[in-house]
Amino acid sequence: MSRLYLVLLWHMHQPEYRDPATGEYLLPWTRLHALKDYYGMVALLEEFPDVHATFNLTPVLLHQVKSYAAGEFREGLYELVFRPAAQLTREEQVQLLGRTFVGSEHLLGRSARFRDLRDRVRAAPSPEQAAPQLSLQDWIDIQVLSQLIWMDEYFLTEDPLVKALTAKGRNFTEADKQRLQAKEIELLGCVIPAYRDAALQGRVELSTTPMYHPILPLLIDSNVAREANPHARLPRTRFAYPDDARTQLERALRFHAELFGFPPNGIWPAEGSVSEAVAELVAGFGVRWLASDEGILARSLSASGQAYAPEHRYQPYRLETPKGPIHFIFRDHQLSDLIGFVYSKVSPADAAADLHRRIRQAGEPVLASGRNALVALILDGENPWEYYPKNGRPFLREFYRRLSADPTIAAVTVSEALAQWKDPPRLQRLVPGSWINANFDIWIGHPEDHRAWELLSAARAFYAERAGSGRASPEQLEDAYEALLVAESSDWCWWFGPEHQSFQDADFDILFRKYVSQVYRALDADPPDELTVPIKRLPVRTIRHDPTGYIRPVIDGEVTNYFEWLGAGLYAADRRSGALHTQRFYLKELYYGFDQDNFYLRVDLFPDVVREMGEFELRVLIKTAQELRLHVTVEKGAVVAPEMFRNGDPFPTNGSNRLAVELGKVLELRVAHELVATTAAEPMKLNVSFWGASLPLDVLPAEGWLEIELGEEAFAWRGV
Predict the structure, then answer these.
(1) What is the percent of the chain with per-residue pLDDT over 70, rounded to a whole number?
(2) Which of 73, 273, 454, 497 is deepest in the core (most CB within 10 A)?
(3) Reported CATH class of domain 446-532
(4) Helix 242-260 vs helix 191-200: angle between axes, to the nearest 10 degrees?
(5) Long-range contacts of range 510-514, CB-CB < 8 Å, 24 or more positions apart?
(6) Can you give the residue ranges of every domain in the chain?
(7) Is 286's pLDDT higher than 80?
(8) Which of helix, strand or coil describes residue 147?
(9) What is the mean pLDDT of residues 658-671?
(10) Dihedral (C-alpha) 253, 259, 263, 265: value to the nearest 10 degrees?
(11) Is pLDDT at 575 greater than 70 in this prediction?
């Protein structure tokens, strides 16, 4: 008798949030989703033994969960949340306000007290103005409640401490906070064992994704994007490193087997991205199945001359490759998206009933022909739930209850479903593409994507050159290669271009550039200056005044008097609000100007930068007909002998009065006119960047260059 087999594949993933230089987590989402989603999603199935599911757990996610569970981590928000409230500085208070009231109304509304605090903060013109209005008790409550709202429903009702704190609701103490801190580590340690146990009991199947979630077809050959979309615009430099694709896959399979004690049978490739080259690579490792989107199936059947009908998606397929066969399942796009984007707006009972009905209807034409039907729902397993009442648990519980009571539907794992097809139909072709529009445009089709790929390609070529030269140790090469693999993640280009935006675009941008920079840093090379310039174009309010006359400041690192820089040009950017509030900045303002013989620059840093950083480097680029580069290293608040480069070549400065640099409350710099080759035909361009641990941390202007028109007030600089 024919039967409908339902595959539920929940994809769990977070990108690498750790700073490559410090190891600190710059964003908290792995920890917070581990508390709110990862444990509860698998624990819920214990109530429904007849409902089996597949969980795709990415290695980069699991590696981070492991470090959190072991307590071996540093994370800025975590430290702010669990610091004694009385010890928070005003700047830390502002950071806390900017980072804790983030989430859906359902999430923030889990606590009436937290919602009230949120409304009070939002009523103020800015977090800076809201902070002084809050009492010490307000701050403690913000700290505790910002964690409780991220707890899974299971913990809220079953864990004694979490339940008690939730019931208390307000007026928490520092002791409450300490107990919650210890509880978080305990709960984080439950995640991986819960999945391992469920898999060993046969209730779930665990699949994986290549190590750092790369788009494998693009790693193998970026030109495949044009095969998926003939009109795609691609980067100038072709990226074709199939060995990297192999490494990403091999390391993922090894990590999974070491962590869980058994290898995965299947793979959900990042973003459902497949190609025939990927299928061959995966088959060569003995993996049994791959999954993608129905759009790929439709195009693949059409490419081989077969008419596509909707019911074709409701069966598995087999693809023969030079490395052996591999099975495919294809997600029902509409049904998957209903869970991800629609049902959160409907009552849980109505949503579950509608989904159950649609699944039955989807399989009816296939079942009527006497064949088994396979309906695959594949989607993000963590992000949708904060938009549902009670984190989606009432919806899932009612949906699972309906499945358990329906004898015509078997909710099974992917491998259990494939066992029902002894001879699935064969795919003659597999066209390349992803689950979004069956192409790769999201990750490589926009000029911002192009710039990211160009930076990645340059770093990859540099790595290959150093690896072949014998000038790097095995340890250096491994460190650099690991950074490359992280930089190959799909997550960075997801946020470049116009398709997706978040309040953390700047954070993802700088993380990507840090990992690309780490490739050079690991090989004892200076990262290119272009890595200081953000890829994502974000609106930033700037103040810009051109010079109005000659200036002659004293180069002593101090603002000697009010008139010293009067007449100078000014560039300042308001970057501590809006979408940029989670990122730390170091460069505050630039003042610049001339006299007949010298160019002057003053760099104002944000307070405490010199004290907190200890050692850092400022790089000043002056571009005219030639390029003049100044590297100013600061150690323990003092300038070490600056380095100068002209057109890339070292240029001596010792014993010369042509360059002067001093650091006090500000950094002041003087460069002799003769070192800067200016002409009347083109403007002078200026860029100042801030580096820590050989990684780019900040830049002014963010868009790359400050163009300084050489007007009448600078006639001596205009050349002849």
Answers:
(1) 96
(2) 273
(3) mainly alpha
(4) 80
(5) 510/534, 510/583, 510/696, 510/697, 511/15, 511/16, 511/17, 511/19, 511/26, 512/452, 512/487, 513/455, 513/696, 514/19, 514/20, 514/21, 514/695, 514/696
(6) 28-194, 446-532, 541-717
(7) yes
(8) helix
(9) 92
(10) -80
(11) no
